Amino acid sequence: MKKIVIYHPFLSVVGGAEQVIRTLAEYLATKNTVRIISHDEHRIDIPNVEFTSIEVLSKRFNLISSVEVSKKIKKTLKENSYDILITSNAPPIIDYLISKKEKGNVLHFCWCHEPRRSVFYKEMGDTNKSGIKTNIKAEIYKKFYIRAYKSHYDKIIVYSEFIRNILKKKLNINGNKITKIPWGINVKSIDWKPLTESKKILYVGRINEAKNTYRLIRAMKMVKKDFRDSKLAIVGPIGDLEEKRFFNELKEAGDAVEYLGVKVGKELQKMYEEAQVVVYPVINEPWGLVPLEAMANARAVVVGTGGPRETVEDGITGLYVDPFNVKDIAEKITNLLADFNLCKTMGINGRKKVEKEFDISKTYSAVSELIERS
Fold this sequence. Notes:
Order of helices and strands: EHEEHEHEHEHEEHEHEHEHEEHHH
Radius of gyration: 21 Å
CATH architecture of the largest domain: 3-Layer(aba) Sandwich
CATH class of the largest domain: Alpha Beta
Number of helices: 12
Distance between the termini: 12 Å
Helix content: 40-55%
Strand content: 15-25%
Shape: globular
CATH topology of the largest domain: Rossmann fold
Number of domains: 2
């Protein structure tokens, strides 16, 4: 049994990274003692997991606040002895300061959902630089991360070959430090329902540029011309500073698109059951749980680039799109709406694939092996 501390800034946020860390902590706590450090105002209840909240005045960290928060985290680490520290989604200066070891008999792991996109936008293939005001600032933050990756961390855990290759080939991180653990889902808990020719399209995820929400909305206006009874349902949180633009795009789309807010649990499951097609046209996504959930529900899924192309098979369980090409997104959706039998076949293929390759039990086995041999 090991003592494990996990730092993740805000676990109360609705997102894939937060879902992974909550599930990871719960699983690790079945065989180890686990403490989570975060800045959430209210306790995050996870069975058998201890929780420490460190207050912050703002979710946006500057140099001064990062240094002060890091001191508090380091103090907590000293007060609670540990064998393994796992950091996740840490801001750059905090990541650098808390990952630096003060004693040699501990291990530091970086749970790298992705290299922070607003800093590594070039490496991630983004044209958008939201969140970082200047290239100079991005370059400074980049140096903090890379130095921590190379000097402070014993292991960097990634989900996909896509992210492994970015770390190895673009950031020159030693490949021996990188461990790939594809994150699965609890396939057995999803009791999928037979497909209906509903002409409903579902998007689940944040609303922002990287998720490619705006091109998807424009594509749906084209789909609507061929299938008057089709409609896209968008489910998920609106990203920072996105609200005005999103609702303007939504207004222009008319009755082709509806926004249903954040859905979780049974409500989200119902959305998957009602959909004929799930669309996830992301730009260089590191992994993506949504395609796995779609396939577990026996639904054909349309995906963009990055990690989802390691889970979805083009022409077998879904279709690939060029995420920068609105016409291509529209055509792929139209192709599936026009061929109900193809949707059914892809859906069944997808269910078989996640049962065989991406059940959460395989993830847990890989996590256990990593912890036990550390």
